[in-house]
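Work Package 3 (structural annotation) set out to generate three-dimensional models for the target panel prioritized at the project kickoff. During this period the team completed the workflow that converts sequence records into discrete structure tokens, so that structures can be stored uniformly alongside our sequence database. As a representative example, we reproduce one entry of 490 residues exactly as it appears in the project archive.
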Amino acid sequence: MRKITLSILLALFVFVNSNAQDYTTPNTGVVWTLDDIAAASPTSVSGSGSEYTLLENLTVAENDTFIVDSDLTLSIEADLRITIFGTFSVTADAVTFTAVDESAPYDGFRFEENSIVNIQNSTIEYGGGLRVLNEDFTLNNCTLSYNVSGVSSGGVVSLSRGTPQITNNTFTYNQTPAINSAANRQVSAYIFNNHIEANNQDNSNRPQINMGTTRATDTLKIIQNTIIGDPAVTRAGGIAVANFTGGDLLAIIDDNIIQGNRYGITVIGANAFAYIRNNIIEDNNIEGNPNLGGSGISINTSAGPHLVVASGNEFRRNLWGITVIGEATINLGDDEDNPGGNIFSENGNNGVTYALYNNTSHEISAKHNCWIEGEESTEEDVEGVIFHSVDDESLGEVIFEPFLCGVTVGVEENSIENFGFYPNPLTDELNFNNTYSFEVIEIYGVQGNLIFSREITEGPQTIEVNLPSGLYFAKFFNNSQSVTKKLIVK
């Protein structure tokens, strides 16, 4: 009888342990490394030095800290999840989180409401993304590629609360959008200087940055990002900010490069206010159906209040330049606070150019803009690219005078303004022919900070430029003349 009982107990012990799939740190206020976890639970983590494998789900308890402060690779078995209730800190120079088998992704990372998370200099690939339920979240200088819909189904980084910081990262070829927040959660993220390309490989009707409502007193900031579409992914837009739940929407969308998406920027819903300034919005036409999208900027609401203030943007080769729908309102330039300065070129569909389509009953102030780039336009020319009350008396009027394209500049000024360089966008080399005897090139960031300076000589020049992706300004000058041009780094 004793022998039978022992056999049963042994079999039960083996059964229970063979199904153990989780390791949780003991919640004693201890700092854990992968070596510590491997020593405490060899069935959870194997490896040492710079190569580790996660074999079971890992949970960091609320009073514990999990740190990665040396360069390493953590390979994760299929469907496993890392859950953080405490603190997660990655501060090494080069860390990779990847799948053991690229065809069998892990489930991803889940950061609980009161956790503290700081992830630096990491590659996060072949997993299920990052579900961010906490406020204290920083993701900086990371690369997130080839992730799928797992624990984070809405986006590679799915945000839920507070003011998370997402800066200087690269998002490419992920199944879902790059960054999103739920429609009913208040998130005022700072999304700065990220390179975002070819995400939403699932080809669902979602943009690469897809944000919902914000905090009532904190502004969502989407600044100096590069957002490039994949021609094969025809349903993915550039940026969307939307209020569908009756909350607040405060947004600043400045200095971004948005190219080759289904559409550029859309602002949807009531109780919304947004600044959209100094963005380059080009070739957002990949779906090709003007009834479904293709606007450089589209704003739409069935109820107010709703206002977008737009200045200094460049719209080229979208199916529509700007579309304004329902009860939405936009200020494109006035004689008070908004300088205008928006530039339009070749935005149209079915053989008709639409720089601005006012599909509302509201009057739109749109002064001091260039409606047909490269031409000294007449009032009749400008009227021909704007659809408003003149075309349909049920629509509101667009006040577009004065406009900039009719301004005649002096011969010398016009000549120097034709100075250019290539390629733009560039990767590492800037080429130009210095026929104006410029002596110095300086490159500035969008905040006006000097980043690069070099003396130059006359004639053909090639300058090596190593800068992070983003928008810059290149100034060429000598003692008597200067010219400043926008410079885009891929």
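The CA atoms of residues 171 and 274 lie 25 Å apart.
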